Amino acid sequence: MKELFQHAATTEGVTVRVAVSFLPEQSHPEAGKWFWVYHIRIENGSHEAIQLRTRHWRITDARGMVNHVDGEGVVGEQPHLSPGESHDYVSGCPLTTPHGSMEGFYTFVNAEGTPLEVRIPFFPLAAPAEAEDGQPRL
């Protein structure tokens, strides 16, 4: 997976960076299944310690169908981030179309329990174009 972060958003000093890659080995276009993996880095550039509590994703496919996904933490964790610290994780997204997008927000709390909604940048999900023989074009 590429380590180059292609998308970023900053909310009150907290930056969310995203790198996304299509996984052909996990995709089965003939069965209407495409799969992407995304690497998220959350950087606490604020002046206070925060803890990630929840996530909200808005996943849209090429047909315009929207799926909202809410849950606690990220990949089973609710990381604490002191000023200057970062947290990385990797997850994946299946779609029934070769294109779509993701965006959303994380809810953090500070030491006093005050919530902070941190934007996750919009990023496209796009499978490579296929040649007439069904093989991906490079």
What topology does this entry show?
Blueprint: E1 7-11, E2 14-22, E3 34-44, E4 50-61, E5 66-72, E6 80-81, E7 86-95, E8 99-110, E9 115-126
Nutshell version of this structure?
With 138 residues, the protein is mainly β.
- Mean pLDDT, to the nearest integer, reads 92
- Structural class, by secondary structure, is mainly beta
| Percentage of residues in strands | over 45%
The total of beta strands comes to 9
CATH architecture: Sandwich
Helix content: under 10%
Oligomer: single chain
Q: Number of helix segments?
A: 0
CATH superfamily descriptor: ApaG domain
CATH fold-level assignment: Immunoglobulin-like
Rg estimate, integer Å: 16 Å
Distance between the termini: 16 Å
The CATH C-level name is Mainly Beta
Write a structural description.
This protein has one domain: Sandwich (Immunoglobulin-like), CATH 2.60.40. The protein has no helices and nine strands. Helices cover 0% and strands 58% of the residues. Strands 4, 5, 6, 8 and 9 form a five-stranded antiparallel β-sheet that branches. The radius of gyration is 16 Å and the shape is elongated. The chain is an all-beta fold.
